[in-house]
Recover the amino acids of this structure.
């Protein structure tokens, strides 16, 4: 079977960025499935972009065939949405002879911002292929709450209509948002089309690589001095709920040290907050590479992960950040209001309500006073859960199972 994946921001292991489509394609290829990724030749999410891609031709990138589409550069996601949609869809239309000659059996839209949604439906219709909608954002909530667009903005209306239409036109809707069927039903789509898939983290985050030795040595030194190190890592942005993390430092015992390892535009604001509160038990480190986070997490006594409360979390959430923390093998304190929190499922730490500073401080204190053996046992539960339930191979297998189910139902007329 051949699967055409349309993902504007698709990255690779070397290019970085959004590697969701690439990771699935790698696993599918191992099973004999033939993937082809259609992506923009420029994405601000990637650490680097293809230098001179073969436009209008299929070329292999790290073993996976790509069809690159010429798009304008954009410094951020807002400009990408405004400037990239039309050139991307126009470029795909021009590449239709190549796509038609490749003869996909299924077309899957997996774009985080629905870029390419209309053309994906058109390709599937023209070629008689199955149309799969891999939902990775809920609209219009995402535009309103994350990108802070005004309710009357034309993109709010456009994305709302586009997602509603894709729900109805798709043969199957897939998502890690476990309750997305409720959103589909609210928009008048058939909730029976929904197929939940598990969240996963790529194998490269768990494999062998160069560890962040300087950061690890830093954490080790403070632990040797008798501090209980609670660490938060990754990109420092508003989505992580790090204000509560810092504010809880004022309520925690002196021996609890709060360490933030990461970079981002929000970092300077957090440093000001620490200064205003006169906190001596909060330290900042530079960020490490994404695939080095698990090594660093494993050196701490406890990991903090926060998710900013959003309205769409009632349908579910992307928990990859939580799973990455659990993979470190130490207790995790997660501050999030989401269904099916993996920390709670695995029993590897504590879950506290969003923005509740006092409950967060109490949870950290409870874990800090546990015997070391108990903490190790708790952390191992999280690591074991990730290895057993959050592998990319398992996720790819579920996508494939959904595709087979959809193909069989279409063949038999849904009976």
């Amino acid at each position: 079977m051949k699967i055409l994946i349309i993902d504007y921001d698709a990255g690779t292991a070397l290019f970085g960025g959004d590697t969701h489509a690439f990771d699935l394609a790698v696993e599918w290829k191992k099973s004999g499935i033939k993937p082809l990724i259609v992506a923009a030749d420029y994405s601000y999410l990637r650490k680097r972009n293809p230098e001179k891609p073969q436009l209008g031709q299929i070329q292999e990138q790290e073993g996976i065939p790509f069809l690159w589409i010429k798009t304008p550069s954009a410094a951020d996601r807002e400009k990408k949405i405004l400037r990239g949609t039309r050139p991307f869809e126009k470029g795909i239309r021009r590449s239709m002879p190549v796509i038609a000659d490749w003869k996909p059996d299924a077309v899957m839209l997996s774009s985080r911002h629905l870029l390419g949604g209309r053309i994906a439906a058109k390709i599937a219709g023209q070629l008689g292929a199955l149309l799969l909608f891999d939902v990775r954002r809920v609209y219009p909530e995402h535009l309103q709450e994350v990108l802070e667009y005004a309710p009357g903005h034309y993109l709010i209306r456009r994305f709302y209509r586009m997602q509603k239409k894709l729900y109805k036109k798709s043969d199957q809707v897939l998502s890690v948002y476990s309750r997305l069927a409720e959103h589909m039903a609210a928009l008048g789509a058939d909730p029976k089309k929904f197929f939940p898939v598990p969240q996963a983290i790529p194998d490269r985050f768990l494999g062998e690589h160069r560890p962040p030795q300087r950061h690890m040595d830093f954490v080790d030194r403070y632990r040797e001095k008798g501090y209980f190190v609670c660490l938060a890592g990754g990109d420092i942005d508003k989505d992580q709920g790090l204000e509560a993390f810092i504010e809880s430092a004022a309520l925690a015992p002196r021996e609890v040290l709060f360490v933030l390892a990461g970079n981002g535009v929000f970092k300077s604001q957090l440093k000001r907050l620490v200064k205003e509160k006169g906190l001596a038990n909060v330290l900042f480190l530079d960020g490490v590479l994404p695939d080095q986070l698990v090594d660093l997490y494993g050196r701490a006594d406890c990991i903090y992960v926060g998710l900013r409360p959003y309205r769409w979390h009632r349908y579910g959430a992307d928990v990859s950040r939580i799973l990455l923390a659990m993979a470190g093998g130490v207790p995790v304190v997660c501050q999030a209001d989401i269904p099916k929190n993996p920390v709670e499922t695995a029993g590897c730490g504590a879950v506290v309500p969003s923005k509740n500073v006092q409950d967060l401080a109490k949870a950290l204190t409870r874990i800090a006073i546990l015997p070391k053996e108990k903490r190790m046992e708790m952390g191992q539960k999280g690591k074991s859960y990730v290895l057993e339930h959050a592998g990319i191979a398992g996720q790819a297998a579920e996508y494939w199972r959904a595709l087979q189910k959809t193909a069989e139902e279409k063949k038999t007329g849904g009976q």
Remarks:
- The mean pLDDT is 92.
- DSSP finds 16 helices and 14 strands in the chain.
